[in-house]
TrEMBL record:
<dbReference type="InterPro" id="IPR013216">
    <property type="entry name" value="Methyltransf_11"/>
</dbReference>
<keyword id="KW-0808">Transferase</keyword>
<keyword id="KW-0489">Methyltransferase</keyword>
<dbReference type="GO" id="GO:0008168">
    <property type="term" value="F:methyltransferase activity"/>
</dbReference>
<protein>
    <submittedName>
        <fullName>Methyltransferase domain-containing protein</fullName>
    </submittedName>
</protein>
<dbReference type="GO" id="GO:0032259">
    <property type="term" value="P:methylation"/>
</dbReference>
<dbReference type="InterPro" id="IPR029063">
    <property type="entry name" value="SAM-dependent_MTases_sf"/>
</dbReference>
<feature type="domain" description="Methyltransferase type 11">
    <location>
        <begin position="55"/>
        <end position="104"/>
    </location>
</feature>
<dbReference type="Pfam" id="PF08241">
    <property type="entry name" value="Methyltransf_11"/>
</dbReference>
Amino acid sequence: MNEQSKAAVRRHSDGAFLNRYFVGRGIDIGGGPDPLGQYVGVFPLMQEVMTWDREQGDAQYLEALPDNCVDFIHSSHCLEHMVDVRVALDNWIRVVKPGGFLIITVPDEDYYELGDWPSQRNSDHKWSFTIYKPQSTMPKSINVLDLLREVGDRVGVERVCLQNNFFRKVLAQANFDQTLTPVAECAIEFVLQKRPTFSDELPALKASAPEIQILNQ
């Protein structure tokens, strides 16, 4: 319930979100029910956020968006709905400008799914996520660290964090979905920065190259 807004309260006290991640113009993938754009002005350097939901097209491909067109991508609890997580992440990286950020949260399979599959809390979940396990009892489990290793040539990893704020074991034992409360988070949050390519760096390298004069002896 309003997972993005829960995260916004936490993020507003984090200088990296205020001054580094939510800067410029971005896209909020899957943000229809609880859009990040409602907090333009709360995050002072965030200029504009376009919500991308079903009406805009398939979030796995973002076909209407050109490469390198936004300063940041935000997605709260959407990646687990994609048919192919890796294709989706490839395209999300594609549309971010070099140096820009991807801020993504997904439900943690132990804190949200509570080990149940298919998901008992959202029947459209196609994947479950864990930061890392040698083995998972979940048949569609993705290790986030393995996933990020696959895209490491294109992005740097700024942070990977389990957000289990206000999670209570006694409620989990009662099989209660704690994300229905206004405070509990049961998510994995990861932040990536898109690496510049050599062609992106070339103009700056040329500009900074020292002038070399060859004198006839």
